[in-house]
Every structure is written in structure tokens, then in C-alpha cells.
Design a protein that fits this description.
single chain; alpha/beta; Purple Acid Phosphatase, chain A, domain 2; Helix Hairpins; six-stranded mixed sheet; 18 strands
Amino acid sequence: MVRVVHAGDFHLDSAFGALTPEQARQRRMESRRTPERLVEWANDHGADLLLLSGDLFDSDSPYGDTAPLLAQALGCFRGQAVIAPGNHDPLTQDGPYARTRWSDNVHIFTEDRMQTITFPDLNCAVHGAAFTAPECPTDSVLPGFCVPQDGLIHIGLLHGDVTTSDSRYRPIRAADIAGSGLDYLALGHVHSCSGVLTAGAVPYAYCGCIEGRGFDELGERGFLFGEVGAGTADLRFVPFARRRYCIAQVDVTDGDALTALERTLPHDTEQDIYRLRLTGTPEQPPRLSLLEEALSCPRRSVSLEVSTRNVMSVNVPVFTFQTDSGDDALLPYGFAQTSGELDAALEKMQAVFADMLELAQVEKTMQLLAEEIEKTRRRVNALEYVMIPDLQKNIKYISMKLEENENSTKVRLMKVKEMVLQDAHHYQY
């Protein structure tokens, strides 16, 4: 038996279009830690094989440090990791798979045909193929493929679309799966976990995406984990997403909207991303026109000056504000058409206004420093993974060339010596 983690469709560096730019940036940073978290989990549970079924990157041109971070994480896995590139991250000459240094325990399929990687220590062989272009309209890998009867555990790893019709993303027929003789076929491309299915006597499954990327990928996301043996595959779904996408429908009829929201939402929602849909008619709809009229003529004004200071060679903002007031009155409205809650809200806003400006200053400072740190990290990665290896290669070439020239010089000197001796003593060797 082989203990297997089957995961895929990380889509690292996705756009996260449903979020704000800052939230999307945060989610991209979080998703880059997904491989590290997965490897830690796999090591803790004694996994032998890590099967990654493609689309690990959202495109073939991810951010500069994303692929090295993935390689670093997989290098910490105590077992063997196998990757089958998908349609979003096809194996190309200039893609992340070709540009990145991978550890010896990481194996990547490189051709659009079935290849085999054997692990004698595990009594196992993994068969698979890579996308070498964004589309693969014909299935040229499984038809006619059948594993040998050699006593090994045979596992397949592919990115494709199990369908009975045409598909641009490697259509896979159930009959070809049944005829392959595999003990388990690990698939990627579909973002929902299928659970273990069977085609003939061959078990196969989609692991689904490990993290949701929008409100079309709701609920729990994760991977498959279990044991694969000769003719058997016992795998279970493991929820692993750091944040879930959820849609909550809140009925505000005849009640307070905030109370209805608190009653509807579960308590453990801090890490998740929710879209709220309010239905019904509240008992007392807010009279926005009266609020706008009450706040249209404020008694106080604030002048804000923005300067900069240098922190670690980064110019960060400094906010200086001054409140101008003609009298001591805070409330610019009468009490006939407004509520006490509005009075309390204005008083609390006045109390925290200075803290809000300070928070904005600190937040902008942290953002600018984080961007500078990110640029520095990219420069370091460029030095470590591109420039230094190139320089080392050039140094090695120059050293070999110099040694060759030195040897040539020695040979020429010996020949000249021989000629001088011949002329001087009139003898020959």
C-alpha cells in the first residue's frame, strides 16, 4: 500500500477579481503559503506520494518568487512529489517549470504522452503526461495505454476532462480509463471534488481546487488523502481551504437588519469571505433623505496637511490636521427629525477621528514599506536564481578555457625545447 496525497488546481497568483485590490493582494500572499501548509500536513500524516494534478500556477508567467516558493516547499516533503502540468501552466521552454530549480524528490512530466516514473522503494510506478500548450483538443495519451503486470502499484496522474463529448482540455473517455489497468487515476481540472469513482475496475477521482477563488467556488475546498494498493483505492476528502467563499441570504422583514444578520451568520465567520443578500422589507426603512439634510451643514471643519518623512529610504506620509470651529456646538441639526443614535454616532466619531487619521497614516506607511520589501525580495530572488547561477556557469567555463590554454602552452613549450635540443646537439628523439 502507498499513502497518497492527491491535490491540484492551486492557481497560484490568481486575480481574485471578486475582491478589492488590497484584499486580492492579501489572498495571493496567503495562497503562496498553501504548498508549505500542504507539505507540513503530508509530513505529519506520513504520506509517501504527493500527486499534483496540474494548474499549480494560474498562468505560465507567475510572479517572480512564486515558483521558487513552491519548489522550496516541495523540497521539504519527506516523500516523492510528482507534477503533471495543466492547461493554465503548460510545460514550455520559458514557463515556471523550466525556469525553476527543483529538488531531487520532485518529478515533473515533460511530454504530451504517457511517461512512467518508477519508485522501487515504494513498489510503485506513476504514469502521466503534461500539457505542453494551453489547449489539447485530442486525447492522445490514454487510448491504447495499459499497465504491465509486474507486481507494482500503478497510479495515473493527468490533467484533463472526463467527458463523452469534445473538449479543448484533453478529453478523457471512461472506456480508456477502464482499459488502462491502473490501480488509481488522479485527475485535475475540475474544481469540485468528485470523490472516488470507478470506470470498470479502475478507481479515479478529481481532487478539486484546494482554495476557492470566487463566489462560483463556494464551501469547503481541499484535497484527497488515503491509501492506494493493487486494485484498491481508499481516499477521503480533507477540507483545507484557509478561507471559504459563502453566500448568506438574510431576511430583514419586520426586524432590524443587523439583528437579522447576526442571527443568520454562524459564529465562526472571521476567516471566510461572505456575500450577503438582504431580502424582505424592514419594519422602519432608514430615511436617508432626512440624514442627508441633517448632516448637510456641519459646524466644524478639518484642515489636513500631508508631508513626508524618510523611513529606510522610503518616503512615507505624515498627516497633520487641525479642527476649525466657530462655536462649541457639535451637532448641526435640530432634534425633531433625528434620533439619539445619530448624536451618539457623531460623538463617537469625534472621539476616534484622530485615531482614524493616525491609523490611515500607519496603514499607508506599512503598505509602502511592504511594497519596497517585496521589490527587494524580487531582486534577491533574481540574484539567487538567475544572476548568480549564470555567473557561476561563466566562471566554470572561463576556468576550463584557461586550463585548456595553459595545457596548450605547455605542449608548445615542450615542442620548442625539443626543436632547440635537436638543433644544438644534432640528435632526434
